UniProtKB/TrEMBL annotation:
Family: Belongs to the [NiFe]/[NiFeSe] hydrogenase small subunit family.
Required co-factors: [4Fe-4S] cluster
Keyword Metal-binding (UniProt): yes
Cytochrome-c3 hydrogenase C-terminal domain residues: 199-273
Gene3D superfamilies linked: Cytochrome-c3 hydrogenase, C-terminal domain, NADH:ubiquinone oxidoreductase-like, 20kDa subunit
NCBIfam families: hydA
Residue stretches making up the NADH:ubiquinone oxidoreductase-like 20kDa subunit domain: 35-179
InterPro entries: Cytochrome-c3_hydrogenase_C, NADH_UbQ_OxRdtase-like_20kDa, NiFe-Hase_small_C_sf, NiFe_Hase_small_N_sf, NiFe_hydrogenase_ssu
Identification of the protein by name: Hydrogenase small subunit
Record lineage: Bacteria, Bacillati, Bacillota, Bacilli, Bacillales
Domain of life: Bacteria
Quaternary structure note: Heterodimer of a large and a small subunit.
Location, primary (coarse class): membrane
Protein's cellular compartments: Cell membrane
């Protein structure tokens, strides 16, 4: 599929804005119970490229994985950003947040407490991925750490945007930060706090296989003639009709383009509602 996404139009950036030499947006990225998939996705944006975004608009000041520095040095730098850019930096959170401080510590500090501390002076908090947005995989099943989402730990008056997905679309992550950089505030959010620009439609609504769905032409297995012809994957358990995400509308090559069903990874509780089981359970 060809990507149809244009970040400048989506974020409403004018030429004047591009020519301004604003300070880059400081971002502190704290990882809780995560698999690092969101960070890896973040490094793979094409529109704009992650490199362009980082060199020109976003300054990633702290990330346990992506910072070049480590140890005491980077922890001290993080603390200095809280003061120097009070009210100006974005706190990005990846991963579900365990109920107990002891379940996850970094640099000798409870990650849960560090998120609360970092959120206090942040301009806004952006939850990257389904784990920080909804609890996600750490909260699935018996939820052994009683993991919760970002809103279970930070005060209600702190502005929050959720960018769910497992992982989220890289361009949606970068685009949300760029909106803050260029407009000074979070983008318009829906009732569930997701940026409308990326989460207004279901995958099904703009799916490139939708014409086959409308004609009732379905693949019955992953290796039958229908699958080879690119027919709709609904009978294989596709959850695109219940998954709000921009994979198909932006034309980024994700599950359905790769010939696999949508598993609704951007939806709350997707793992307990089927996960990778081939879609036998449907999201209600
Ligand atoms: S493959 Fe899934 S999202 Fe696409 S048309 Fe079929 S049911 Fe809808
Ligand atoms: S197609 Fe569905 S499962 Fe795949 S990335 Fe998009 S929302 Fe997630």
């Amino acid at each position: 599929m060809m990507s149809t996404y244009n970040w400048i139009d989506t974020i409403h950036v004018t030429e004047d804005m591009l020519e301004r030499k604003d300070q880059r947006l400081p971002v502190i990225w704290i990882s809780a119970l995560d698999c690092t998939g969101c960070k890896e996705a973040f490094t793979r944006s094409f529109e704009p490229t992650t490199l362009d975004a980082m060199l020109n608009f976003i300054s990633l000041e702290y990330s346990e994985l992506l910072s070049a520095a480590g140890g005491f040095q980077v922890e001290a730098h993080k603390e200095s950003i809280f003061e120097t850019y009070k009210g100006e930096y974005i706190l990005a959170v990846e991963g579900g947040i365990p109920e107990s401080d002891e379940f996850l510590m970094i640099a000798g500090k409870s990650v849960r407490k560090e998120i609360i501390h970092a959120a206090k002076n942040a301009k806004a908090v952006v939850a990257f991925g389904s784990c920080s947005s909804w609890g996600g995989i750490p909260a699935a099943g018996v939820n052994p750490t009683n993991a919760g989402d970002i809103r279970s730990v930070i005060p209600e008056d702190i502005p929050v945007a959720l960018v769910p997905g497992c992982p989220p679309i890289p361009e949606a992550m970068i685009g949300t930060l760029l909106h803050v950089h260029f407009h000074g505030e979070l983008p318009e959010l829906d009732k569930k706090l997701r940026p409308k620009a990326y989460y207004q439609k279901t995958v099904h609504m703009t799916c490139h296989r939708k014409s086959f769905f409308d004609q009732k032409l379905f693949a019955e297995s992953y290796d039958d003639d229908g699958a080879r012809k690119g027919y709709c994957l609904f009978k294989l358990g596709c959850k695109g009709p219940a998954a709000f995400n921009a994979c198909e509308s932006m034309g980024v090559d994700r599950c359905i383009a790769a010939g696999f069903t949508c598993i609704g990874c951007s939806e709350n509780g997707f793992w307990d509602k089927g996960g990778f089981c081939g879609g036998k359970k449907r999201i209600k």
